[in-house]
Design a protein that fits this description.
The structure holds 2 protein chains of 2 kinds. In chain A, strand 2 and strand 3 form a beta hairpin. In chain A, helix 1 packs across helix 9 and helix 9 crosses helix 10. In chain A, strands 1-4 form a two-stranded antiparallel ribbon. In chain A, strands 2-3 form a two-stranded antiparallel sheet. Chain A has 11 helices and 4 strands; from the N terminus they run ααααβββααααβααα. Chain B has 2 domains: 203 residues, 3-Layer(aba) Sandwich (Rossmann fold); 150 residues, 3-Layer(aba) Sandwich (Rossmann fold). Chain B is built from 14 helices and 14 strands. Chain B has a 7-stranded mixed β-sheet with strand order 7-6-8-9-10-13-14, with helices on both faces. In chain B, helix 2 links the parallel strand 1 and strand 2. Chain B is globular and about 65 Å long. The N and C termini of chain B lie far apart (70 Å). In chain B, 59% of the residues are buried. Classes of the chains: A mainly alpha, B alpha/beta. At the A-B interface, helix 1, helix 4, strand 1, helix 8 and helix 10 of A face strand 7, helix 8, helix 9 and helix 10 of B.
Chain lengths: 299, 383
Amino acid sequence: MEYALQQLLNALAFGAEYALVALGLAVVFSIMGLVNFAYGEIIAASAYAVLLAVAVGLAAPLAAVGLAIAMGILASVLLERVAFRPVRRAPLTTGLLTAFGVSIVLQNLFQLFISPRPQALPLLNGLNQTLMVGPYAVSSLQLMQLATAIVAGGALVWFLNRTTLGIAMRAAAGDFATVRLQGIRADRVVAAAFALSGLLAGIAAVFVLARRGSVAPDMGFMLVLKAFVACVIGGFGSLAGAALGGMVLGFIEVGLLVLLPAEYGGIKETLTYCIVIALLLLRPEGLMGTRRELGDKEA
Amino acid sequence: MTATGKITIATAVAGMAAAMPLQAQEITIGMAVSLTGEYAPYGESEGARCMAERLNAAGEGARINLLIEDTRSDSQLSVSLAQRFLDEGAQVVSGIPFPDSLIPITQIAEPYGATVFSAPNTQVEMQVAGFENFIAGAVPDPINAAATAQAAYDAGARRAVIITSSDAGSWSDMLPRWFGEAFEHHGGEVVARLTHSFGTSDWSPQIARIRAIDPAPDAIHISSMLPDVGILIRQLRANGYEGWVIGSDGFDDPSLEGTVADAAALERVMFATHGLTGMNSGIDAFLAECRDAGFGVSGIFDALGADMVQVIHSAATAAGTDDPVALRAAIRAEGGHPGITAASISYAENPGFPIKNVPVIGFRDGERVLLTEDTPSHVPDWN
């Protein structure tokens, strides 16, 4: 029983990490229909900003947290302005390819100007303490991640429902042209979505750094692929779905890791995606997505 | 011109001709290496470059021409690059040191007569396949696993957990199992087998399983890469695990100490590797000289790259030809060749891999120390 509860806590922590990153992807997708595969590099940019700060002698953990978040927002808004705004009116596939291109360019910049090798950065290791609560080993980082995912999800819902900018963003997600006709500046709405997404990337970078104790050019890539899967599970475009999808993916991964015998460990990823496909067969639009008419593609 | 004069000129020309083949002899080595991507910490090209420049500057024997391209840790790209090197006349080529890269490269190199020399390769697939034109620069994984099994048992470990992954073939999947087999041969017991994926930064599920084992294990073996293994060590210690954490050459990167960032957490860590680094050894001296000369060398894998160049240079000079088949025969000739990780590197006994002692490195007060350096007494059968 203790063991099962311990693994339940672990699954929640895995899910919280995926949910946090999936929320960042979903915010931008819900406004622009863009799957920002360069999101992992925004996380990496935040981590590298901390690395550079430490290299010049700014080694205060609290300042590092602030710097990572600020860099996440800055990098995200900058990418929107430089890379994604010029292709905003292009087909969705153009945006997708742009995102992949930006991801590769940024990874190469990190490799060329810093190093292709992992760089040790233990500055935030202190955030990851193991607390013994009775028989359970609970990581302070896991608790913070879970709390942050819940707060971030709640704050996003509040922002989108209670603030003018948030309501404009929701309206833009439904019908961008009409929102512009109301006199709302499209650029501002989109930039705000990217800023929000960058804020979440900065927070994710803090957690990733605290756990890894190192930075590497491709440190965010796999995480974003997982977050993408989480968004698909939850229903792309739905913030609640992204969070739920992250949690579901976390539970699937930890469940397979725990239940599969070592002899079958090699098929963990295969089984993960089999379960994801099975979920999508049952709910093609994702767990919380809205059903779209497919016309003559319907059976 | 008199007859004497003609003879004098003819003799001089003949003398020059005799000397010329040695001076003009050039061996091209095409290296498809991972300068970027997940395998970048384990690249050997800077050490190879440093050694080639050193040998070429000395001007003795064959001249080494290195062609180096980045695979971006992509096996398919490494095969394409190797094909290009072969078309450009390379007598020796290399790729990512895993079978999915090396098997196709070895097959396409065969009609050219070229040798595939993988300096960091340790995986037995290449040895079991029995390619005539394949040579590894490092001892196979079962020997690495056997060395740590013996060292761990001698250090008092009796109950081991092994953590495997299918992400890097037998290196990450079978090496821990070979450790387990050798460990049990010595009298220890493997009490659990867990799995992981590369890129893991949260080891909580595995650690929870380890904590649930009663009585607790006193050794954990994993063959994986940095920063993953550094994070594992840190998280194990934070969860109260005080036993040995045992690894393979994937631990052997200078970023291990930085990633763990705690000397006490390293105290019961050991790993088997290819030579002594970070311990003021001859390899360290070579790497320091390379760094001073402007090469971006980092660790043991650069030393293996230097070994490869030195072995090929020695063999080519002895063979006196740039014919790739003759060069391979010369590499495997009796007597061995000079190297950086060992004074003499011989392929006469095994055509596909060298015979070397396996150093097992540990830590004391955060500094690397040599625990053992032997040929293990029991090596699991890998065929």
